[in-house]
Design a protein that fits this description.
CoA_trans_fam_I, 8-stranded mixed beta sheet, alpha/beta, single chain, NagB/RpiA_transferase-like, 251 residues
Length: 251
């Protein structure tokens, strides 16, 4: 099955207001910027986003965030995104912060059909006990707090129950992909991208290099095409447009 869609705009044309999205990337690495920009240009809003972070340097999800298109974020890192922090503290944005490894496993579990799992991460903290601010009231108070989660003991150790994550759509970026949706990720871009792709009911991948079926060795495939419904081939200019978050030089 040829899953290639001519343009990013066509690939995201059926993403409705209020949809949930799993979005790959970590910082500026492996972020599906072209698909995110297409969503922005389409005017889609009220989105619930699941991603490690919410963009940086006015790129990635920061484009949608700054435009007020994101209603809820499930993630593990705010970092230096001042607009993310401002919206959260002002009560404009609902945020569920969870441990980074837990986020990764919740996405993987959802994609693997596992409804929930136990982990020791967060036991003895508000992650398990509840009370983490999901939404502030804009005056320093908490309007909505996280509920307590089930904690169970196995072999003398306590574990907290975490739910797998499934989203309406997933947006990912790969270094290489074929027309069947088989994907290869480059270096640190192989971070949350495969997991986000697994979690989406409809997964859309932008690929820097599009090849024909059979050109990717089976053992080289990082994510099989069964998890991918649409593929968008980037132009050489789009593929080469990679920002550097913190440039360092040495004498």
């Amino acid at each position: 099955m040829d899953k290639v869609v001519p343009t990013a705009a066509e690939a995201v044309a059926d993403v409705p207001d209020g949809a949930s999205l799993a979005v790959g990337g970590f910082g500026l690495s492996g972020v599906p910027n072209v698909l995110i920009q297409a969503l922005y240009e389409r005017g889609t809003g009220g989105l619930s986003v699941v991603s490690n972070n919410c963009g940086a340097m006015e790129s990635g999800l920061a484009v949608l965030l700054a435009a007020g298109r994101i209603a809820r974020v499930t993630g593990s890192y705010i970092g230096a995104n001042k607009e993310f922090a401002r919206q959260y503290l002002a009560g404009e944005l609902e945020v569920e912060m969870i441990p980074q490894g837990t986020l990764a496993e919740r996405l993987r579990a959802g994609g693997a059909g596992i409804p929930a799992f136990y982990t020791p991460a967060g036991v003895g903290t508000q992650v398990a006990d509840g009370g983490l601010p999901w939404r502030y009231d804009g005056n320093g108070g908490v309007a909505l707090a996280s509920p307590p989660k089930e904690v169970r003991e196995f072999d003398g150790t306590e574990y907290v129950l975490e739910r797998g994550i499934r989203t309406d759509f997933a947006l990912v970026r790969a270094a290489k992909g074929d027309r069947h949706g088989n994907l290869v990720f480059s270096k640190s871009s192989r971070n949350f991208n495969p997991l986000a792709a697994m979690a989406g009911k409809v997964t859309i991948a932008e690929v820097e290099e599009l090849v024909e079926p059979g050109e990717i060795e089976p053992d080289a495939v990082h994510l099989p095409g069964i998890f991918v419904q649409r593929v968008v081939a980037l132009t050489p200019e789009q593929a080469a447009n990679k920002m550097i978050e913190k440039r360092t030089v040495s004498n």
